[in-house]
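Lab notebook, bench 4. Continuing the backlog of folding jobs that were queued last week. Each job is logged with the same field layout so the records can be merged later without manual cleanup. Today's entry covers thermospermine synthase, a 361-residue chain. Filled in by technician R.K.

JOB TYPE: sequence-to-structure
TARGET: thermospermine synthase
LENGTH: 361
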Amino acid sequence: MGRQDQAQVKQRWDPHAHLRKNKKEEDHFSEFEIIPAEDNYQNPPTGNDQQQHAEWFEEQLEDDLKWSFALNGVLHAATSEFQDIVLLDTKRFGKALVIDGKLQSAERDEFIYHECLVHPALLLHDNPKTIFIMGGGEGSTARESLKHKDVEKVIMCDIDRMVVDFCREHLTENQEAFHDDKLHIVFNDAKDELEKTEEKFDVIVGDLPDPIEGGPCNDLYTKPFYEQVIKPHLKDNGIFVTQAGLAGILSHKDIFTSIYNTIKHVFKYVIAYTAHVPSYADSCGWVLASDEPLKLDVEQLNSRIQERIRGDLLYLDGASIVSSTVVNKMICTSLLKETQVLTGENVRFVYGHGLAKNSEE
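JOB STATUS: finished
OUTPUT FIELD FOLLOWS
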């Protein structure tokens, strides 16, 4: 999922010290801290406060903004060729997957993000059988896709084998999906994998990190990619959906509006929608597109949920899918007025930078 970033670890209480090999590698880590509780109070806590808040995870969201979680502890940590992977046990949000210092998903509310990413596209499609997921290494996007009874094949293409193996081992809620015969896992760059196949899909899902300076996925948010790679690999009635970054009052102009406008220049019918995700401290945005008309009908969506999906959805029903496409006046105005089309030469970034920038320094 989105919101990745690389920078450096501040060495106070550091669960990754045993993973470091040299100073250059150290600089690849993201800017975050696990902070002892006494550093968060003018006066050190006593009694219950001290027991309840032993450490904090702190994420740098912007130059002037941080977001903190009280922890029970660090469950697992690893470092791959591409990124730093940590599984935290947070008091508020349960298990939380952190990649390169940026929260990717949290146990207690990840269903909001993943239901919104997957189900509107699959429910708006008349009969989705084949799904291609770009990214999605934690397995949650595959899990939601496989809830659809008639889906026959889900390809999850992630560049980082270690992330997939890490999540397959430690995220118990996705283990059933990882063992489903319908799921085919491919370790490759999504662009390269799509370019080398002649197969076309009913739905293509973009569950990729946000575009960041020096990041690995920036080209996968551009008009040439949507036009030359995504569109040719969709069937005639196919649907494309992608996560599109944060979409709150103060964050929607970062990348949400430009991704929406870029996709509008490629597909005939485009829908932007949003939902608040508590662990992100903001709203998330998604963009869904097709060259066939997209019918937002509450009764039809509810009927398809009942007919097609195993079990219950926790967040979405027909009415909430339709209502998620109604954004407030400020964001609606920004979407209508956006002029930037992302081409690869004029990408818009979120806060932070990636390994490519570090390696050049």
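OBSERVATION: The chain is about 30% helix and 30% strand.
SIGNED: R.K.
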